[in-house]
Design a protein that fits this description.
This protein has about 375 residues and is mostly helical. It has 13 helices and no strands.
Length: about 375
Amino acid sequence: MKLGARILKTGLAIVFALYIANLLNLPSPVFAGIAAIFAIQPSIYRSYLTILEQVQSNLIGAAIAVSFGLLFGHQYVAVGLAAIITISIVIRLGLENCISLSLVTVIAILEVQGDDFLTFGLIRFVTVLIGVLAAFIVNLVFLPPRYETRLFQSINLLQDEIIRWTRLAVRQASEHTSTKQSLRKLKEHHLKLNQLYLFYKEERRYIKNEKHVKARKLVVYRQMITTSKKSLEVLQRLHLHENELSKLPEQFHIMIQERLDFLLTYHEQLFLKYSGKLKPDHKAWIGQEEYLQRNEVMDIFAEQIAISRENDEDEEFSSYHLLHILSRILDYEENLEHLDTLIMSYQNHHGDEIKLEIEDSIF
């Protein structure tokens, strides 16, 4: 079992909340620990939003609990009605994520009996808020998430896997079942990338210059994810049409293989370029001097279709399926070129900063 940062933070937040509640001699400190569990979030910004939402929902729950306690006493039916009304109001205000904690506040207040009901109700409300604040402090100080580092490394790892399997697939060297299983894992990995990107996007910068840098980075990382998706689509097509690919004329098959080899190498070098590991004067990519333009590829494709029809090779040569593969390759190529343009634009403005940050994250 892997212990992630969020698991450790949850345990630490519970301990911290219980410690503060005991230090202040608050009765039933367990409610602070329960509140801390609900308040732990995967990012600092989400923790901040959670505090605002939970303060509002807890105020609603406390107000309803006190009102029902004064009007109906501490009957079980009153607790149920208070919970129903609290849920309705919280949902109405768009605070659905805080329903559980607001209900904890309702029950914590309504289970208090005696003449000092209002005083104890206020204490229980404060106890819950202490748990929320304790979780925020832990999230802010202890192992703060570095989503940019995780995002870049995840994109890099995903692309390495895609490149490896694509090189095997285009050479008809990969085993069908293994490729199918790997494709499923690669798709899952790509979905996680989108979540990491969202977490990184939510991180706030408070210095004007840092905001501009962050905005440029977001554009670059979004294109990295899009380009990885396009390369994954190429691999999916190679896997789906592996039988048709094996029936291609040898010359055409070699052309596709060489083109993909060039694009995959191009993609690898773009990651090195972004991380500052390529020489500044390195502008010509490997194999560029023999690289066919897109219009030349389409001309060769059209010629091959004409030849196959003249020779009555329709069964051997499936132009329809080949067009699917070529369209994915050309789409992948266009996205690589766009990514290259964005990286060059970013490095012209902030090249030294990204190199330093990535090196610090690795070492």
